[in-house]
Design goal:
mainly alpha
Length: 108
């Protein structure tokens, strides 16, 4: 009886081990495929960025470079607009305690 029980448990463990090894290899292949897809997506993104830059006109490229370096063309002048100052908030004095507010609401 014990031998039969031991054999059944052993068979169950071997089947579980084989199933886990199969799942492990499936997960490894999924990881490799996902990693490959990520690398190709990054390459596509990089090539699209390069194509976007090449589609810009010469005027746009020059304008972007001048704006980044804070330069101006001849016969142009730069206007620097200061950032708006925060609006002042009104002063709110200390209020009564909440229980006094309730008392004044109901009894006065």
């Amino acid at each position: 009886m014990r031998k039969i029980f031991f054999i059944v448990v052993l068979i169950f463990l071997v089947i579980s081990l084989i199933r886990n090894i199969g799942d492990y290899y499936k997960n490894i292949s999924f990881y490799d495929e996902t990693k490959h897809n990520l690398i190709t997506a990054k390459e596509i993104n990089k090539s699209l960025g390069i194509r976007k830059q090449s589609n810009l006109s010469d005027f746009e490229i020059e304008k972007n470079l001048r704006n980044k370096q804070s330069l101006v063309r001849e016969n142009e002048f730069m206007i620097i607009v200061p950032s708006p100052s925060p609006t002042p908030t009104p002063y709110v004095g200390p209020t009564e305690a909440p229980y006094r507010q309730w008392v004044s609401l109901f009894f006065e």
